[in-house]
Structure prediction request, 354 residues.
Amino acid sequence: MSSEGAKEDCLGWAARDPSGFLSPYKFSRRAVGSDDVSIKITHCGVCYADVVWTRNVQGHSKYPLVPGHEIVGIVKEVGSSVQRFKVGDHVGVGTYVNSCRECEYCNDGLEVQCEKVVLTFDGIDVDGTITKGGYSSHIVVHERYCFRIPENYPMDLAAPLLCAGITVYTPMIRHKMNQPGKSLGVIGLGGLGHMAVKFGKAFGLKVTVFSTSLSKKEEALSLLGADHFVISSDQEQMKAMAKSLDFIIDTAAGDHPFDPYMSLLKTGGILALVGFPSEVKFSPASLNLNMRSISGSATGGTKDTQEMIDLCAAQKIYPKIEVIPIDHANEALERLIKRDVKYRFVIDIENSLK
Ligand SMILES: NC(=O)c1ccc[n+]([C@@H]2O[C@H](COP(=O)([O-])OP(=O)(O)OC[C@H]3O[C@@H](n4cnc5c(N)ncnc54)[C@H](OP(=O)(O)O)[C@@H]3O)[C@@H](O)[C@H]2O)c1
Ligand SMILES: [Zn+2]
Ligand SMILES: [Zn+2]
Prediction:
């Protein structure tokens, strides 16, 4: 079943300028090509990246900008050559929708590292139009960049896996932080951070959360299962953790000093940065005296993403979400800036975008 060559109207919510204010916006999705899947979007997670792009923090946002890269939905049409999906399948789309498909990274299933990776929004699509994200009624994507969501995994809960989940899973696996008994520090308890806590506990790690929000302490310990909760401004609590951690994943959405965290790593410990502070600054002694490393990571490849989704389904690892209608999207972005999130907003596109 395919309507190759046809175009459809799509309803979305877009920011029109750097105020970032979102409002309804109609546009056309490209026609379904032979390798494409057309997806009726049911849910879309709200990532801090949506704040960054709608407000043009990096200076290259193209308006109107439809954000959203934690997309979950139901296949409604497939191109004639599509192999992996059929109408009715539950699928997800993450932070990118295309790549060259022939470089060393693409060949390794690490498409996010491809020079020609195309982001899910604000990128250039195959038809030359600007890609538009998941705050919209449907999306057309090459099947390679779609993921299977197991039927028994609730679709609203699946949304945060597509960015928050894979962004913390990738460096944790790469640095062998799936070995029981190791100690993990998580900076920032938002969308990414709470998934790092969930994976940490699923992998049998000893997990310490470093937060600026005392209001998150009780749930972090009782609901998310963290072993320790440290208020990062409390120097005594920080000092008590000196040289105790194998690995820290830094998901803070804003600026903070690095040296106090580096001193918490054991000899040879690693800090993996996934958040985007405006700068990274630390004393050389923080690295060389104890052979520590600092490392970065961006989402993850298609192979790891499907593996992570399947692991979450098999081990019943579920994000903790707050489901909102699309007309609360502006408020949700404001609340992210105020760190008022427990722990991922997910927009109920299916029932609220009309
Ligand atoms: N590398 C990637 O591929 C990738 C992918 C997605 C997102 N990101 C980036 O990762 C970061 C987190 O994204 P998210 O969606 O998880 O955001 P989020 O849900 O808004 O959570 C971020 C959390 O960071 C903490 N925080 C915020 N400002 C801080 C500051 N100045 N100092 C210390 N802690 C601070 C807060 O937690 P507490 O209340 O616990 O302090 C906040 O809730 C953002 O910078 C985002 O752009 C990167
Ligand atoms: Zn994201
Ligand atoms: Zn490539």
